[in-house]
Amino acid sequence: MTHSVLLTGANGFVGKAVSRALLQRGDRVVGVVRHAQTVADGVREWLLDADDFQGIEQRWPVALRCDAVIHLASRVHMMHETATDLLAEYRATNVEGTLRVAAAARRAGARRFVFASSIKAVAQSSVGPPIKETDEPAPSDAYGISKLEAERALLDYGRESGLEIVIVRPPLVYGPGVRANFLQLMNAIAKGVPLPLGAIAARRSLVFVDNLADALVHCATDPRAAGQTFHVTDGRDLSVSELARALAVQLHAPQRLMPVPVGVLRLAGRLTGKTAQVDRLVGELRLDSSHICECLGWYPPHTVEHGLLETAAWYRATH
Questions:
Q1: CDD domains annotated for this entry (predicted)?
Q2: Chain centroid to CA 123
Q3: How far, in Å, CA of 306 to CA of 319, rounded?
Q4: Distance separating alpha carbons of residues 96 and 74, to the nearest angstrom
Q5: 4-175+207-235+286-302: which CATH topology?
Q6: CA–CA separation, 21 vs 29, rounded Å?
Q7: Can you say whether the dihedral through the CA atoms of 38, 42, 47, 49 is positive or negative?
Q8: Which residue in 28, 52, 88, 291 has the fewest CB atoms around it within 10 Å?
Q9: d(Cα 99, Cα 153) in Å, to the nearest integer?
Q10: Beta sheet of 68-71, edge-to-edge order
């Protein structure tokens, strides 16, 4: 059965992978983007250059009908934030913008809305067992708070309107085209820079972008997903040192990992004002992703090894 899916953020890192996954199924895809000619081949482009999806309902094409929306567009962490009221900025996009898309889609006949949230809506780290969907959320930054508020506002709207809401909370997403910290780590490894990661045993959940895309497609099309919240991972958590070693192998680079004690790294973080960055590096963040397996029978189609191989191959070809 083919579906008609509206995809926000269609030209982004995850959006392109989701577009490919939908097109391979034979689904019809409309990508909402701000810049022309940026969507994948086969995706119908809807150019909507408006802050936080303002006016989306009025500008919705008369003939455009969709069964489901996969909402990827969001305000994410900026490297050098300049806004004075960060939480207000995040709320404008991640809460109010999200609700505008949901309401406009509902009025245009959509039955389901899949929201790409983040594990940061729950926590920045885990202590003890991996984080379950039923754990009490305690976000610690403006981004995480805005994502949790969006989840709750969507569930309220779904109850009022009948729109089926599905929430997906990925951890760190990697794959060809990855940016930010993961790309910086690959840059350092590829250049043979000695890294103080050899003694970090803390494990962190990851998800390969094609695994996440596959899960999002299931959430948009499987009747059993309605009303559910899912954590999605590769199903195997690597320690930071294991990840760095695996990337070194795939990048054909030397493994230059120094076994610096975690306590020394934390002290260095405090002295340099980079406590948050060091905590992300040495702290554990594990997700329990068994719920989506039990509820939808979904399992990641790609292994961690395959995901890292694809990511490294892209890096070697483009850097």
A1: UDP_G4E_4_SDR_e
A2: 15
A3: 20
A4: 11
A5: Rossmann fold (3.40.50)
A6: 10
A7: negative
A8: 88
A9: 8
A10: 44-47, 28-33, 4-8, 68-71, 112-116, 164-169, 229-231
Percent of the chain at pLDDT exceeding 70 = 97
- The string of pLDDT tens digits covering residues 25-42 is 999 999 999 998 899 999
Q: 66, 109 in Cβ contact below 8 A?
A: yes
Sign of torsion, CA 274 275 276 281? positive
Structure tokens at 186: 């690959």
Domain ranges of the chain: 4-175+207-235+286-302
What residues are labeled active site?
143
Q: How far apart are CA 56 and CA 54, in angstroms?
A: 6
Question: Dihedral angle at the C-alpha atoms of 16, 145, 153, 104, nearest 10 degrees?
Answer: -40
Identify residue 59 by its one-letter amino acid code: R
For residues 224-247, one letter each, b for 16 or more C-beta atoms within 10 angstroms of the residue's C-beta and e for the rest, the string is ebeebbbbbbbeebbbbbbbbbbb
Query: In the numeric block, which tokens belong to residue 190?
Result: 């590829």
Tokens of residue 299, six digits: 């399992």
In angstroms, rounded to a whole number, what is the distance separating the alpha carbons of residues 287 and 126? 8
- pTM for this structure? 0.96
CA distances from residue 249 to 89, 203, 268 in whole angstroms, order as listed = 41, 19, 28
* pLDDT (tens digit per residue) in 202-223: 999 999 999 999 999 999 999 9
Tens of pLDDT, residue by residue over 99-124, are 999 999 999 999 999 999 999 999 99
Q: How many whole angstroms separate alpha carbon 256 and alpha carbon 59?
A: 54
SS (H, E, C) 182-224: HHHHHHHHHCCCCECCCCCCCEECEEEHHHHHHHHHHHHHCHH
Q: How long is the chain?
A: 319
Helix axes 98-107, 142-161, angle to 10 degrees: 20
Express each pLDDT in 49-78 by its tens digit.
999 999 999 999 999 999 999 999 998 865
Angstrom distance (rounded) from CA 245 to CA 239:
10
